[in-house]
Write a structure and sequence with these properties.
The chain contains three helices and no strands. It is mostly helical.
């Protein structure tokens, strides 16, 4: 019985190796269209994943720009308040300079408006410049997507 099993298994092994060789020959003849099909599918999947990565990076960049734009708008509002206060102070100062040469109550009010206006202008200007510089340092091209696209380009060149 053991001898029969051995001879049967050798026969089976020979059949499997013949079938394997035939299957490999079939796979080699079918492999070119299948390879092109798989390559096309892989390239489409690659582009889809790159597009998804690009979308995520763009959303992150948009959030950063939105935050920066909001702070710039806030800085602009603060600077506008300062500009308005400075204009009121200048108007009070000019009116009091024409009235008398010595400092009166309105002149002290004007001085207070000037100091407050200059403070708001400085704070608003600092905010606007800080946000402008921060946004200027930010890259417009998403770096991870660009790096992945370079890798994919290299991979496609090596595959083709």
């Amino acid at each position: 019985m053991a001898a029969t099993n051995r001879s049967l298994s050798k026969t089976d092994e020979a059949a499997v190796s013949r079938n394997g060789a035939a299957a490999m020959a079939r796979n080699e003849s079918e492999s070119l269209p299948n390879l092109f099909s798989r390559l096309g599918d892989d390239v489409m999947q690659l582009f889809n994943s790159q597009l998804a990565l690009f979308k995520v990076e763009i959303k992150e960049e948009a959030r950063a720009y939105a935050r920066g734009a909001a702070l710039i708008a806030f800085g602009g509002a603060v600077a506008t308040i300062g500009f308005a206060l400075l204009n009121v102070a200048i108007a009070f100062a000019v009116s009091t300079l024409f009235a008398e040469a010595n400092f009166s109550q309105p002149a002290s009010y004007a001085l207070g408006f000037v100091v407050t206006g200059v403070f708001y202008l400085l704070v608003g200007g600092i905010l606007v410049l800080a946000m402008k510089n921060r946004l200027a340092k930010q890259e417009l091209v998403p770096p991870i997507t660009a790096q992945e696209l370079r890798k994919d380009k290299h991979w496609l060149k090596s595959e083709l």
